[in-house]
Each structure stands twice: as structure tokens, then as C-alpha cells.
Amino acid sequence: ELRGHTRQVDSVGFSPDGSRLASGSGDKTIRIWDTRTGQNSLELKGHTAGVTSVGFSPDGSRLASGSWDKTIRIWDARTGQNSLELNGHTQPVRSVSFSPDGSRLASGSLDNTIRIWDAKTGQSSLELKGHTAGVTCVGFSPDGSRLASGAWEKTIRIWDARTGQNSLQLNGQPPP
Fold first, then answer.
1. Alpha carbons within 13 A on the beta-carbon side of 24
2. What is d(CA 115, CA 164) in angstroms, rounded to the nearest whole number?
3. Is the CB of residue 131 less than 8 Å from the CB of residue 137?
């Protein structure tokens, strides 16, 4: 049992090797835990509202977080230093996901959009529009060529992660 947050925990994610667990909370913090000992090794502060999503990069060196404050932050997962703050969403960010090679980061927001960012520079390379309600989850395909997103409108969309074209809507209907 891992204790330390002072508000609800909204997201958890294992490091690729399973040795660490990140947790994001309504208390505006992220904690990184040692999964062998249960010790809280880092507490990351910087968001101005609750943290809704956390995810490690494929090599475990970085951690991304999304928040009710409408920002995404990328942290050094070993030191806790905040290396990038990504701005562009107009509503809270509900989901973040690194591409399999760690070069890109996808974010889904209650502004009904998905953004794909350069994970090293923080530049937004694509804004994906098509959902008619808040985007609650995003995830890359294993080869990084596609991105799936889910939203409150009860649909899942599959996108070309390089062009942003919506190739499939999983509700039995073709995309508009």
C-alpha cells in the first residue's frame, strides 16, 4: 500500500522495467515510487491543478503528465526536473502517451482534440479534430504509425499518427 497523496489518485503508470510506479493526483503532484520497497523516491510539483494522466517514456528516462490546468509537462524521471511545459489545449488534458520510439507524445483533452508533440522540443506537430466530446484516452500502435483515441461521445477513432488523417471510427460507421 503506497500512501502519500493528500487527494484522489487519478492515474498510475509503471516504468518500462517495472521498478518504478508514477502516480498523479488531485493534490497537483506526481509521485514516483520504488515498486520493490514502496518508498516514495520523488515528488514532482509544478502543475497548478490536479494531475489526470502520467506515462513513462519507452526508455524510462522521462515522464509525461497531463492536468486539469490544461498543460502537459515532461519531467526527467530520475531527478524530477521539469524539462518541458506544453501548452495548446484550451480545456483539461485527460490523457498522455509516448510513441513507442519516445520521439512523440500524444495528448487528449476535454477540448475535443488530440495533439501530437515533438517530445524533445515540445512543438505541437499535429492537432487532430473529429471528436464531438472530450477526449479521455489516447494510445499509439506498437509501430507508432497509428493513434487511437476514445471520447465521451462513446466512439473510438483511429488516426494516421504522421498525417493526422482519421482512418477509422469504431462505432460501426465510417468517419465523416
1. 29
2. 9
3. no
Q: Which of 161, 127, 113, 155 is nearest to 141 (CA)?
A: 161
**pLDDT tens digits, residue range 91-121?**
999 999 999 999 999 999 999 999 999 999 9
How far CA 102 is from CA of 57, 62, 68, 143, in Å, comes to 6, 9, 24, 11
Q: Which of 133, 129, 153, 149 is nearest to 141 (CA)?
A: 149
Cell of 20: 518504478
The Cα 157–Cα 152 span in angstroms is 12
Q: With 70 as the cut, is the pLDDT of residue 13 above it?
A: yes
Q: Is 172's pLDDT higher than 80?
A: no
pLDDT tier at 166, thresholds 50, 70, 90: confident
What is the length of the chain? 176
